[in-house]
Amino acid sequence: MVMRIALTYLLSMSAVMTATGQQVDVWIGTDTTGGSPSRGVYHLTLDDSSGVLSESSLAAEAEKPGFLARHPKLDVLYSTSPQGVVAWRIVRSGGGPPKLEKLNERESGDGSSTHVSVDPTGGVLLSAQYGGGSVASYPLKEDGSIGMRTSLLKHDQPSGVVADRQDACHPHSVFTTPDNRYAVVPDLGADRVFVHKLDPGSARLMPHGSVATPAGSGPRHLKFHPSGKWGYVVNELAMSVTALAYNADAGELTMIETVPTLSQAQIDHERSNTAGEIRVHPTGRFLYASNRGHDSVTVFAIDDATGKLKQVQVEPIRGSWPRNFGLSPSGKWLLAAGADSHTVAAFEINPQSGALQFIRQSAYVPSPICVEFE
Question: Counting beta carbons within 10 angstroms of the beta carbon of residue 6, is it exposed (0 to 12), middle (13 to 18) or buried (19 or more)?
């Protein structure tokens, strides 16, 4: 298993060195509620050699397609919805921007979904229901359409530390481990990352364990290091990142350290501050976390021996309220979504330090809250 993860790591580094000089499709999930100008899922392209962004275009009208996930093998995209999850076929024709055609939709069994992801085999779709306090799984068919839901696990251990946010469990996202044996679920209301055993063949989830994050931290999103040894969770309420060691044999996460994304002076200077997204660079050398309110991305260097973090930079996103951002597959660019400024801004990534530099490229996208690369 260790050799397989190491090989995946080497292949990912090879892809970073070769995936340049092309137009890369970027899909944008949006917030369509509360008077938002958004109408659904949007599309734009990134020139991987220059960082130039195209104008955005509406790919599909949809209600609350906030978070997106790409099928690893098929031209299919998945989105959240008020009822559950939606599968979209990507249609490329006529030389214009691609469009999305709905394949089908499934109810979560617990209301609106907040986050979706697809396992590496392309056989399982996972969703997290923040309001319902649950995580669900669905088998995916050969054409990418969604089968009937096979699991719905409810979380019931709220921490209660932050009274208005943690009086109930709130799973905020769900991801598979690098070996695809488990699904990990950061739960903002529980101050825990739950680990559920995943059977890819039957698309079923079974409770397995959890790891606690600091009290009142509010874990939101998690990303694994390409080596498979570490995971990193961004804590929305505490404005911090917790580094975790992953024991693949036992399916266990253990805490290594927790570091702030901003100084206390930076936090105190803003009326409101909450952490948003987290991403690990394809090389595994750098980590990025977004700060809403301060409207910035914090850059960390990852120690290749311990997995610990050292802050490199805090870079403003040239926009407002970065709920999400994405890293290009080549590792050359970061696209930061300003949900309140209706912008997606491009930053060049320094390959030696991981630091960001704004390249004066920004596209208009109404209420962007998810950046999903092809």
Answer: middle
